[in-house]
Amino acid sequence: MPFDIDVLIVYADRDNEPAHAGEPGWVTQFRKFLELMLTQVLGEKPNVQLKSESSLRGGVDNAAVWVALLSQDFVQSGRCLDHIEAVFKHAGTEARSRVFKVFKTPLNVQDQPPRLRELLGYEMYQLDPDSGEIREYTDYFSTEAERQYWMKMVDLAYDIYETLLRLRNSTSPTESKNLYKRKTIYLAETAHDLSVQRNIIKRELQRHGYTVLPNQTLPGSVQELERLVRRDLDESALSIHLIGNAYGEIPEGSDRSLVDIQNKLAAEKSLQTKEHAQAFTRLIWISPHLAHASEKQKGFIETIKRDVEAQEGAEILQTPLEDFKNIMREELEEAGGKRVFAETSGRSIYFMHDKVDHREAKPLIDVIRQSGFEVLVPSFEGDLLDLRQQHIDHLCNLDGAIIYQGKVNEQWVRMKALDLLKAPGFGRRKPIVAKAIVTAPGASLDPAGFKSQNLQVIEEDANRPLESLKNFLLEFNA
Fold first, then answer.
1. Does 325 share its domain with 425?
2. Are residues 159 and 203 in the same domain?
3. What is the average pLDDT across 346-369?
4. Domain span holding position 67
5. CB count, 10 Å around CB of 175?
6. In whole angstroms, what is the distance from residue 339 CA to residue 37 CA?
7. Within this chain, do residues 27 and 50 fall inside the same structural domain, yes or no?
8. Which branch of life, at top level (predicted)?
9. Which of 198, 193, 252, 245 is nearest to 226 (CA)?
């Protein structure tokens, strides 16, 4: 059935009031960014419309997808709540896959509209990992926005994209799920400090046809939480647990965190399957950077490392995240009996640089080509969306990546580094063999800020130009 609107965004009036006169409101900015992301993945501009609280007059628009922008004002608006109820009645059993809830501000499960409580949410507000303070984004290109807002935006865009494709192909959610014969994986919910890393792994698993659980918001009470986690673990052949500095949220009625409870229940599942000779494995990744972990979190980690029961059926790794992802791929390939993630044997390097640095970049590009690599480079002329699509194509096809910083600032470099992190979400199907940032003499860059992304920072020596780059290329060949 054809739809008049691809995506309809429903919001409360006050949520789009500009912070300063003459500036666009939060909702207007959200629509702009979502439309841009969807254009990139669909290959065409979608029809994305806004519907404010004051314009809701009864009846339901002929939309493929609805996005509810949740806030205190939204849940206090009778019109917004009535509209969501009408949408669910209109869409019937498909509503769960066609309605997306996005949090402009945090809301407890109990405060959310009942129809939306079990849906997975996309948090688009700013959370300070150290203080726990929550703020709305005003600078969409800050470091924190890169880590949180844009990663969630990519996640949302791809989930909407898959729904739009399914609706255009007239495939039911059940039929779509049956296209994939691979196993179900329980990817445990994490504390806030690892939400980005979890989303990256989730997206990569989904792009390779795995069903990832949990696929709904976990309940706030411990009894209901344990029931749902056990149910999802029973459907899964593998569980993956990511553990960092934060102990995590403690559900009502428990003295353990959500992260701790999931690990405990997965250990119980391992013991049960061992007794019944069934296959169930666990992978636990512990961050190698735990300088800011609380005493309670340190105790939890020590328990995992030393307690035989907590380790039941688990492989525990405290390595860089990229190394863990490689081990995860191997585990999945062995479980499936075939290679799922393609081996990388190509010879292409994407050399990312800005137009202002093109002249200085040319000698480096020549060295890469002379070393036997195909060099992918950005274009600077043409339609903005076409250029962005070419950039995404390069991210999907590269074998190695180099970001060049000459006259551009560190913020530009961070945006390109973020694109490398998001590559699985753009459709990339193989790991990146090597990646580096090359800085020109005199360029200002803090290498420490890129260690967590496994990005090697190469500083050009004015007295020995290109020497460090050549060494990197030799390592690539090793």
1. no
2. no
3. 88
4. 1-175
5. 11
6. 31
7. yes
8. Bacteria
9. 252
**What's the number of domains the chain is made of?**
3
> Is there a single domain that holds both residue 171 and residue 184?
no
The residue that leads in pLDDT, 208 or 439, is 439
Per-residue pLDDT at 85 exceeds 90:
yes
Same domain, 184 and 332: yes
Last residue of a domain, one of 310, 341, 372: 341
CATH number at residue 27: 3.40.50.10140
In angstroms, the CA 399 to CA 418 distance is: 17
371 and 328 in a common domain: no
Q: What is the pLDDT of residue 206?
A: 76
Amino acid at 17: E
Contact 120, 215 (CB under 8 A): yes
At 474, list the tokens: 């030799």
pLDDT at 4 over 80: yes
In tens, the pLDDT along 110-122 reads 889 989 988 888 8
Asked if 120 and 210 sit in the same domain, the reply is no
- Taking each helix axis from N to C terminus, what angle separates 258-275 and 295-306, rounded to the nearest 10 degrees? 10
Residue (of 66, 69, 64) closest to 14 by Cα position: 69
- At 348 the pLDDT is 87
For 459, phi then psi, to 5°, come to -95, 120
pLDDT digit string, tens, across residues 281-332: 888 998 888 888 888 888 888 888 776 555 656 788 888 777 787 777 777 7
Structure-token pair, residue 219: 């309940």
Over range 372-396, report the average pLDDT.
80
Tokens at 400, concatenated:
């190695």
Tell me the average pLDDT across 54-81: 92
The model carries a pTM of: 0.53
Q: Are residues 146 and 4 in the same domain?
A: yes
Whole-number pLDDT of residue 215: 83
- pLDDT tens digit sequence for 140-163: 666 566 556 777 787 788 888 888
At which residue do the structure tokens 């990146």 appear? 432
As a whole number, the mean pLDDT across the chain is 81
With contact defined as beta carbons under 8 Å apart, do 89 and 33 qualify?
A: no
Residue 418's pLDDT is 77
